[in-house]
Structure formats: C-alpha cells, structure tokens
Amino acid sequence: MRPTLIDAVISLIPDAQVTCWKNTVEWHNYPTSPITEQEITAELTRLQQEYDNKNYQRLRAAEYPPIGDQLDALFHAGVFPPEMTALLQEVKNKYPKPN
Questions:
Q1: Average of pLDDT values for 15-33?
Q2: Residues with Cβ within 8 Å of residue 76, at least 6 apart in sequence
Q3: In DSSP terms, which residues pair with 17 in a beta bridge?
Q4: Least buried of 27, 78, 79, 92, by fewest C-beta within 10 Å?
Q5: Sign, Cα dihedral of 41, 43, 44, 45
Q6: CA dist 7 to 12, 40, 93, Å?
Q7: What is the Cα 21 distance to its own chain's centre?
Q8: pLDDT digits (tens, 9 = 90+) for 64-77
Q9: Run of H or E including 94
Q10: Domain extents for the chain?
C-alpha cells in the first residue's frame, strides 16, 4: 500500500502512538523536540519514492507462478543439492500424490 502520513510519523518516531481522525494525524511519545510538518512531508516523500522504486517487485510477484510450483519444477529438474533432494523426496514419499 502507498505510504501515508501515519507511516511517515512512525518511520520518524518508531515508538510513537499515532491516531488519525477526520484527516488529522496526532502522535504521542515524541522526543523532546517534536517533528515538524516539513520533516513529515520530507519523510513521506522519501517513503513514496521507496514505494515507487519497488513497483517492479509488485508487478513481478503478481505474475510469477506460486513459489511451490517454482520449487517443484526445480526439484523435478534435478537442480537441488543431493541433501535437499533427499529431504524433499522423503516428504513426497510420506505423502504420495493420489493417482
């Protein structure tokens, strides 16, 4: 999800207690010098840039086959080290696929 003002405040003050009511964000447990709106805006901009930079990850994840299918394909291709192949085969033997 896109970062919010609450995310920015929590990023700046991890132990803050943050509440949001009717588009107003309040936080408690801040250090001796409270954070400014400019600091919150700058942090929100940084978090948004970080989110935008990872868009490729979200797009890839939506189109990759499930991880179980990927691992099963590697198993059948004989790509795993012998120890891992033995462990996986043991589980497959314990719970065989129905015919």
A1: 71
A2: none
A3: 28
A4: 78
A5: positive
A6: 9, 9, 47
A7: 26
A8: 999 999 999 999 99
A9: helix 82-94
A10: 5-62, 65-94
Long-range contacts made by residues 26-30, C-beta under 8 angstroms, separation at least 24? none
Are the C-beta atoms of residues 40 and 48 closer than 8 Å to each other?
A: no
Contacts of 9 (CB under 8 A, 6+ apart): 16, 18, 25, 27, 35, 40, 43
d(CA 86, CA 92): 10
Determine the Cα–Cα distance for residues 50 and 44; give it in Å rounded to an integer.
10
Helix or strand run (H / E) with residue 5: helix 5-12
For residue 72, give both structure tokens. Answer: 């099963």
H, E, C per residue of 37-76:
HHHHHHHHHHHHHHHHHCHHHHHHHHHCCCHHHHHHHHHH
pLDDT in tens, 69-99: 999 999 999 999 999 999 999 999 999 989 8
Spatial neighbors of 51 by CB under 8 A, at least 6 apart, are 2, 3
pTM of the full predicted structure?
0.63
